[in-house]
């Protein structure tokens, strides 16, 4: 517990930035109309490709006996891939709604 408090005291500026980012994100998302919410979320899901690349880098730099880093990296790759694919599927389904029917 002491280590956590010392870390927070040393990095208090980062804590403030994270807290302000959370409030800013809540305000921005709450002002998005519901019509635009799905396209924005599907695009945000597609951005998770950065998570996949980061997880691959972590797995590549991890020691072979560091099972925690390997397992977490593997889970991040799997979940990030699912999120990216889901974002593209949702976007594709939305675009199909706007096509003319034969």
Automatic annotation (TrEMBL):
Any one annotated GO CC term: plasma membrane
Keyword Transmembrane helix: yes
Record gene name: pntAb
Protein name: proton-translocating NAD(P)(+) transhydrogenase
Transmembrane segments: 14-32, 44-62, 68-91
Every NAD(P) transhydrogenase alpha subunit C-terminal domain range: 15-100
Catalytic reaction list: NAD(+) + NADPH + H(+)(in) = NADH + NADP(+) + H(+)(out)
Protein topology in the membrane: Multi-pass membrane protein
InterPro entries in UniProt: NADP_transhyd_a_C
Task of the protein: The transhydrogenation between NADH and NADP is coupled to respiration and ATP hydrolysis and functions as a proton pump across the membrane.
Pfam families: PNTB_4TM
GO MF annotation list: NADP binding; proton-translocating NAD(P)+ transhydrogenase activity
UniProt organism field: Chitinophaga cymbidii
GO BP terms, alphabetized: NADPH regeneration
Top-level taxonomic group: Bacteria
Assigned EC number: 7.1.1.1
Location(s), subcellular: Cell inner membrane
EC class (word): translocase
Keywords of this entry: Cell inner membrane, Cell membrane, Membrane, NAD, NADP, Translocase, Transmembrane, Transmembrane helix
